[in-house]
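Lesson 9: reading folded outputs for more than one chain in a single document. The general rule is that every protein is listed as its sequence immediately followed by its structure tokens, and records are never interleaved. Here is the first one.
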Amino acid sequence: MLQIAVIGTGYVGLVAGTCFAELGWSVTCVDKDAAKVASLHRGEIPIHEPGLDGLVRANVATGRLKFTNDMAAAVRPADAVFLAVGTPSKDEDGDADLSQLFAAIDEIVPSLSGHTVFVTKSTVPIGTGRLLHKHIAGIRPGLDFDVVSNPEFLREGAAIEDFLSPDRIVVGAETERARAVMRVLYRPLAERGVPVLYTNIETAETIKYAANSFLAVKISFINEIADLAELVGADITDVSKGMGLDNRIGKLFLNPGPGYGGSCFPKDTRALRNLARNAGKQLKVTEAAIDANEDRKRAVTGRILDMLGGQVVGATVAVLGVAFKANTDDVRESPSLDIIRGLQQAGARVQAYDPEAMEQAGKLLRGVSWATDGYAALKGADVAVIATEWDDFKNLDIQRVKLLLRQPQIVDLRNLYDPAEMAAAGIDYISVGRAWIQRWSERYEVAE
């Protein structure tokens, strides 16, 4: 049985380690926080990810999944050491901070004896694998090891499914010995028909950045088309469906909204932009997506302020949702945070609710009144903003909403409701890419 050590029990490390155990391997996850390790052994999960808590408890019970803060004990018997530490942006320009990665390597290498495969699961700049190889060889010149790039492609809120039933697995490995270890590791998935693509290290690293940047471009593009749809009288919902039915385009990531956020797209697009600039190349499409996303957050904040009709100072805005997407408690670079800050800077009061992310958001926001549920957030507000597509917000009692609001005004940034139904309920309603449909229809009726 393969012995695996996973360094880091954050989002990527915890999901990867748990799922490798589910595939039948012996996994030890390492974290320096002893209290966190103890809570993980009790099945207490520090992040919200559907299905993860049950999977952790089940694999801890079998003995295949362990947690420890003893790095040496975890890595010494390991056939593969997965590096899943944080690589956040270290400055506003977006360069990745690799200090945690190299600190982990410095601590791991002295404890090793036999052949070890170092696997970068964290998202790292192109060329990092080569740097790691040189760094490790410098610490232990005679050490028998390989470096592999095995990027993750996990969607928050669907990470278990993405790991156990992925579209593809990418492995950047340059020796047959390293590829052999990775073939055994992923054999249970390969036998189910999951494609495994073997490349060199730089190619695997590039695939990760290119994939995330392409999806970010797709989101920024559909948001711009949504703005155009409002001006010409089109329905962005049908536009997205029509585009998505083309197999060359695909239906995913074509839902307009307040812009992309989370731990990957903002960080990875900026890092790719900087990598390209350092290589003497301008990635104009990626840079345009970054700029368009920043513009998007400012623009949707402006919509909310416009709804208040100039009476912003002292007005109350209810914000439903602060996580960057549904089914996660992740608020990293969530558009909601920028929207809330923009509203506060304009003089508005904000009362908000999110099913999972309020604790995390509360660490980053000041002056927000946090509600116990969605209806409590709406009470007495001058306008309601639907910012995250949680199921909790898809089936609100609209008549109750109307009674709770001081003014029956809703800005729906996720298009959860039908404009005609909201109009019939007496709600002054603005959505994305559909705001001018009624006015355009009336124009045609007059022309006839």
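And here is the second record, again sequence then tokens.
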Amino acid sequence: MFADKLNHASLIDAMQLAKAAGAEVKRYPHNDVAALDTLLTASSARRKIIVTDAVFSMDGDLAPLPLLLELAERHDAWLVIDDAHGFGVLGQHGRGTLSHFNLPASPRILLMGTLGKAAGVSGAFVAGSTTAMDFLVNTSRAYIFTTASSPAIACALTQSLTIIRDGDALRTLLMARIRQLREGIGALPWPLRTSLTAIQPLIIGDNKQTLALSAALRERGLWVPAIRPPTVPAGTARLRISVSAAHTEADIDGLITTLKELA
């Protein structure tokens, strides 16, 4: 297993389960394709699996999926992609990060995504080749021994998928709010990570200051969570700003104004 160092905690837990089952796990520096190539080249494993977030949950940046798929092809490896923050938002008609990069379907890819974010319900999905899906359906204990989703969830999800497919106007609105935020807080003393997605991390650095800022924002009716180590690397405590299509121009202006006052 070859996993990006900034993968989500759920993927890190999956790596631990894989290790318990006898797999060897290598973690490569964040989005470092050259380092991953070196690890894959050095490996003599019969089965190789690259595991990555598509949109990284604490930085909001994208995995270089075209390059990762190229490596998977070259090294005869699987590519497992968690598109929790891309599905419904990125790509044509919100189809996700694979569509964003215009990547074709590949039997090497296993695509996962939550249904609790853009889809607005609960549960998750995994998609891949018929062979891979048949294998999971028949061997995945976590799937076999979990109660099925309720008909109410299935009904709501059907409507969610229609809204996502026809939601180009909502996605355009979301991107406009993201631009508004980035342009409005560019002069603050804290750096904003480079991100074109809904996740906009404002790096404060000091843990106590980050908590104080989050509390001050909440007192003013603005919910912006403080994220600290060990969730993120030491010295990079941050306000994790999550922009939504439901936010109005006034909402974003209010956040910008308040942050400038607190700065």
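What the second record shows: The chain has a mean pLDDT of 96.
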